C-alpha cells in the first residue's frame, strides 16, 4: 500500500473512531435527560397528596405508577410471617430490614418494610426483639417496589433470615394475597416506639454518572481528532520545513 493509501486508511479509522465516541457521548446525554425527567416525576409523586388506601395498586402496571406516593394504611400485622432481610446497611451500620405483611380489611395483604435493626456483632442469627402490636393498627409510609434483590448463591432462602424476598413466591409460601409492591413505613407522630430505624435512602436515579460518561466519550473523541491532526497534518509539515 502506498503512502496515499495508508493516509486514507488512517483518516477513515480516525473519522469512524471519533464519530462513534462522539455518538456515545450524545447517547449518554440523552440518558441523562431521561433520568432527569424520571427524577422530576419521582419528586412530584413524593410531594403529591397521600394516596387513598382503597386505590392501592392490585397489578404490577398500576404499582409502577404509584411508587414513592405517600399512603396511610390500616390493617393487622401478620407477625408470624415477619422476615429479616440480611446485608441491608443503614447509616453505615450492618443490619436487617424487618419486613412484615399487613393484612388489609379486604383480605389482601401488603409487604411493609417496617424499618431497620442492627445485626449482632458476634452472632448473626441472634435477632433483636421487635414490638409488633396486636389488633388493628394504622401506619404511614411510601409505596415502593418490593425490597431490592441482592446477589445470592443457590436457591432462595426461607426462614426468618433471608437475603431476598420475592413477592409472588412469598405469597405462595404464606397463602397471602400480596399486592405487587411494598410500603416503606415512616415514623408517625404519636405512634408507640418500636426500636426500628427508618432512615430510608431517598429515591435517586443517579443522573451525574451519565454526564461523567458523556464527558469521557467526548474527551476521547477530541483526543482521537487531536492525535490525527498532530501526526497526520501538523507534524509532517514541521518535518518538511526543518
TrEMBL record:
Domain of life of the organism encoding this protein: Bacteria
CDD domains attached to this UniProt entry: SURF1
PROSITE patterns tied to this protein: SURF1 (PS50895)
One cellular component (GO) term of this entry: plasma membrane
Subcellular location: Cell membrane; Membrane
Lipid bilayer topology: Multi-pass membrane protein
InterPro entries with a match to the protein in the record: Surf1/Shy1, Surf1/Surf4
Swiss-Prot/TrEMBL keywords: Cell membrane, Membrane, Transmembrane, Transmembrane helix
TM annotation in the entry: 211-231
Family to which the UniProt record says this protein belongs: Belongs to the SURF1 family.
Annotated protein name in UniProt: SURF1-like protein
Amino acid at each position: 500500500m502506498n503512502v496515499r493509501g495508508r493516509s486514507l486508511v488512517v483518516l477513515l479509522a480516525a473519522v469512524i473512531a471519533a464519530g462513534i465516541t462522539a455518538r456515545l457521548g450524545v447517547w449518554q446525554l440523552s440518558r441523562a435527560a431521561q433520568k432527569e425527567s424520571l427524577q422530576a416525576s419521582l419528586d412530584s409523586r413524593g410531594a403529591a397528596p397521600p394516596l387513598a388506601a382503597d386505590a392501592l395498586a392490585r397489578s404490577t402496571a398500576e404499582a409502577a405508577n404509584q411508587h414513592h406516593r405517600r399512603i396511610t394504611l390500616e390493617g393487622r400485622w401478620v407477625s408470624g410471617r415477619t422476615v429479616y432481610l440480611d446485608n441491608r446497611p443503614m447509616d453505615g451500620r450492618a443490619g436487617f430490614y424487618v419486613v412484615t405483611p399487613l393484612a388489609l380489611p379486604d383480605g389482601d395483604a401488603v409487604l411493609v418494610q417496617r424499618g431497620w435493626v442492627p445485626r449482632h456483632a458476634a452472632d448473626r442469627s441472634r435477632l433483636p426483639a421487635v414490638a409488633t402490636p396486636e389488633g388493628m393498627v394504622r401506619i404511614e409510609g411510601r409505596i415502593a417496589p418490593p425490597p431490592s434483590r441482592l446477589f445470592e448463591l443457590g436457591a432462595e432462602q426461607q426462614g426468618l433470615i433471608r437475603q431476598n424476598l420475592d413477592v409472588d413466591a412469598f405469597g405462595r409460601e404464606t397463602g397471602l394475597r400480596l399486592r405487587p409492591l411494598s410500603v416503606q413505613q415512616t415514623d408517625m407522630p404519636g405512634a408507640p416506639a418500636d426500636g426500628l430505624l427508618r432512615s430510608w435512602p431517598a429515591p435517586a436515579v443517579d443522573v451525574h454518572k451519565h454526564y461523567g460518561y458523556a464527558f469521557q466519550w467526548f474527551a476521547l473523541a477530541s483526543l482521537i481528532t487531536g492525535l490525527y491532526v498532530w501526526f497526520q497534518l501538523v507534524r509532517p509539515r514541521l518535518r518538511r520545513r526543518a
